[in-house]
Design goal:
The chain is of the alpha/beta class and 395 residues long. The protein is built from 16 helices and ten strands. Helices cover 41% and strands 12% of the residues. A hairpin with a 2-residue loop joins strand 6 and strand 7.
Length: 395
């Protein structure tokens, strides 16, 4: 007999969230019929042998005669699941299934969630590399920093298919797109802005890097110990490299100290920022409080002082949501059989996303909504075009 519900073991039978997840959120469905002997003979033995022989002779045919060309692996070790932390591979599966669901729903990309039972860098790299022949791309997800940087870098060097750590680059693409439009609303250029970013994990590092490439005037990055600056003790190699190219003003104190007179605040930290610190920013400031489920500063408080406020939540305007990026990025990369995803392709994705706002630009509309049907096609087209320019497209 089933145990009685308790606070530790609640009764999930009538919870609508659990009912939606029951049995998983995705499944495998055939793309060709098998209803008779002729179908069976072509789909499996003996007909399948002819296709296998052809691919053995010409490996590139796999992209035409198997699922590889339209299939992405969504890979995690469960060590940095959004808002939940290190919960392990089994508990990470609902998130990875959700990612696969979004790939298919928004861009028609088939995706397979793979939650791996190893956490060391060598093991992750070896496992993903061994699985790579079955896929047209690799979407890394929820792998804790700084290991995630090495995992991605090594896989990009080893594989000739797109490898994309969405926690880094998806967030960065959408944040850049939103900031371009927020700056336009403020009548400013990116090169005129001074930004302060709280959070030096995967997403914080990637947002910092893409803003530097896009020409931000200055950006200073903070971690849990305060501002990152040249010469600070105890910096890991990733932070030490950023210290060389950020924080031109040399801030050494707290995030809130650096915010005095700043034009932009971007929060990716899970920490809090006092309303007074937002009030001390420059006039017509821009606040992206992106931590989930609780933003660094409540949007209502921030709006009393800032021109534009964005969050990572769907219940406030200007949601910085990775679903605006990753489906279209992979759709475009797969469509041209890109061998990698270049920095130019990421910038092109951000530009395409920003352009969709157009004349509708307003304080509560600096980024399209998640269900704007223009998003994935526009991003895909921009990514595919830039892949050709960058010389990584194979068709």
């Amino acid at each position: 007999m089933a145990a009685e519900p308790s606070p530790a073991h609640p009764d999930y039978r009538y919870d609508p969230v659990f009912l939606l997840h029951r049995g998983g959120k995705i499944g495998m469905h055939p793309s060709v019929p098998v209803v008779g002997d002729d179908d069976l003979a072509m789909a499996y033995t003996p007909g399948v042998a002819r296709v296998c022989d052809a691919i053995a002779d010409q490996p590139e045919l796999a992209t035409r005669y198997t699922w590889v060309a339209n299939t992405v692996a969504v890979v995690t070790d469960g060590t940095a699941v959004l808002g939940l932390g290190d919960i392990g591979p089994a508990a990470a599966m609902p998130v990875m299934e959700g990612k696969a669901l979004l790939f298919k729903s928004f861009a028609g990309v088939d995706a397979v969630p793979l939650c791996l039972g190893c956490t060391d860098v060598d093991g992750l790299v070896a496992t993903v590399a061994a699985l790579a022949p079955s896929f047209g791309g690799i979407n890394l997800e929820d792998i804790s920093a700084p290991r995630c940087f090495e995992v991605e870098d090594r896989l990009r060097a080893m594989l000739d298919i797109p490898v994309f750590h969405d926690d880094q680059h998806g967030t960065a693409i959408v944040a850049l797109a939103a900031l371009r439009n927020a700056a336009r609303l403020a009548g400013r250029e990116l090169g005129e802005l001074r930004a302060v970013l709280a959070g030096a994990g995967a997403s914080g590092v990637a947002v910092t890097k893409i803003l530097l490439r896009a020409g931000i005037g200055d950006i200073a990055l903070a971690d849990s110990k305060g501002m990152i600056y040249r010469g600070r003790d105890g910096l890991n190699p990733v932070k030490a490299a950023l210290a060389e190219v950020t924080n031109k003003a040399g801030y050494t104190g707290s995030t809130e100290d650096a915010l005095r007179g700043a034009d932009v605040f971007i929060g990716l930290s899970g920490s809090t920022v006092a309303e007074q610190a937002i009030a001390a920013m420059a006039p017509r400031s821009i606040v992206f409080a992106l931590s989930n489920p609780e933003p660094e500063v409540h949007p209502d408080l921030a709006r009393a002082h800032a021109l534009v406020v964005a969050t990572g939540r769907s219940d406030f305007p200007n949601q910085i949501n990775n679903v605006l990026a990753f489906p279209g990025v992979f759709r475009g990369a797969l469509d041209v059989r890109a061998s990698t995803i270049t920095e130019g392709m990421k910038l092109a994705a951000a530009d395409a996303l920003a352009a969709l706002v157009g004349d509708g630009l307003a304080a509560d509309y600096v980024i399209p909504g998640a269900f704007d049907e223009r998003v994935a096609p526009a991003v895909a087209d921009a990514v595919a075009s830039r892949a050709r320019v960058d010389g990584v497209a194979r068709q």
